[in-house]
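Researcher: Next sequence.
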Amino acid sequence: MTMRSPAELRYLAEGLARKSSGSHSLPRTVEEALKILHELQVHQIELQLQNDALAEAYAESARNLEQFTSLYEYAPVAYFTLDRKGRIAKANALGRKLLVSPLCIPDGLHFAPFVTTDCLDMFRSFLDDVFARNTLESCTLTLMNPVGGDPIHVLLEGVAEEEGEACQLIVTDVTRLRLAEQRLAELTPPAGT
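Model: Next structure:
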């Protein structure tokens, strides 16, 4: 819904008033004129109150949008919106940092090239399941580290949007957990020894 300027609204109102003025007759007495004037004043006050309520609702909506945008953008997990082909439509700050750059991800960049080769089939299967089942799906896999070094172990959780053309993806870095599990396995003697 686009907001119209007061001048545009006035122009539209005058046009509508001209169209409907032929069906109304002028008041015959001063009392009738005063009654109509009173009705118009009451109606003007009602409209002002409605306008004030709409302005407050608009301001509240803007505050909520800002709050949720901030919540999404600076969340402690990576958020992505992927299309059916695995192209990235949106990513929050942590998602951009996880893959490429904290500032931007080029339009249409595919998610798959960031997945390690040994996990590509798992990622494709995960994405197919997200769109086919319309339920929350999850899997763990590894991503290539954009700054070099060891791969990043992640938990993917995704669900298709209602229209089914995109999915919301949460990517949680579980590298520390994986390393701790590996270290624990190294320190734990095999069963039966």
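Model: The two ends are 72 Å apart (CA to CA). Strands lie at 78-83, 88-91, 137-143, 152-160, 166-173.
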